[in-house]
Amino acid sequence: MEKRLEPMERFCGNCRYHNAYQYPDLILCFVRYQKHEDPIVSIFGCCEKWEPKSQECLCLEEALKKRNQREG
Ligand code: SF4
After folding, report:
1. Distance (Å, rounded) from C-alpha 68 to C-alpha 72?
2. What is the DSSP string of 36-69?
3. According to the model, what pLDDT value does residue 55 have?
4. Candidates 15, 30, 51, 57: which one to mutate for ligand 1, based on the most atoms within 8 Å of Cβ?
5. Which helix (H) or strand (E) holds 22?
6. Which ligand 1 atom is nearest residue 16's CA?
7. CB 45 near ligand 1, within 6 Å
8. Degrees (nearest 5) of the Cα angle 50, 12, 39?
9. Whose CA is closest to 50, among 70, 27, 21?
10. What is the per-residue pLDDT across 16-60, written as a single tens digit (0 to 9) for each?
11. Is the CB of 46 under 6 A from ligand 1?
12. From ligand 1's centre to the CA of 21, what distance in Å?
């Protein structure tokens, strides 16, 4: 029987099209890069092209920790 994946909150930081840029807050988006749009976006951003990344990414985890510390 196939195991269902947990629904995942959508962020640029867990989208398959992101790559590290300014760890951990900013990422480089390949979709935006290919469209000649500014490819540097917040790790907490999102858009309609979002697709899940198969591997967990540490920068999102770090950015979430940092944000939680800031918000106390
Ligand atoms: S802007 Fe869209 S396509 Fe680019 S990384 Fe974020 S969610 Fe993914």
Report:
1. 6
2. TS--EEETT---TT--B-SS--HHHHHHHHHHHH
3. 78
4. 15
5. strand 18-22
6. 8
7. yes
8. 100
9. 27
10. 999 999 998 999 999 999 999 999 999 999 999 999 988 777 888
11. yes
12. 13
